Amino acid sequence: MKTTAAQISAWGNGLALRITKPMARTFGVTDGSPVRVSVKPGRIVIETEIEPTLDQMLAAFDPDKHGGEAISGGAVGAEAYSNDDA
What we know:
alpha+beta, Pemi-like Protein 1, Chain: D, two-stranded antiparallel ribbon, 21% helix
């Protein structure tokens, strides 16, 4: 994680934090990118709001971590088919 000194500046009726282009590039944001901001005493956390693509979600899926199939039990209702129906 990169860390750099920055300064809070007045911007209209509020305050703003300017980040450098290299930090924005590393963070994956551009002008207008949606972000989520969390505030605690002495700490501000900024996270991107970019939704992952299906390919990214599938690449990140770990069957060992997530327990394999989503529904690993036996048939439960009308959705169950016998091998004869295939």
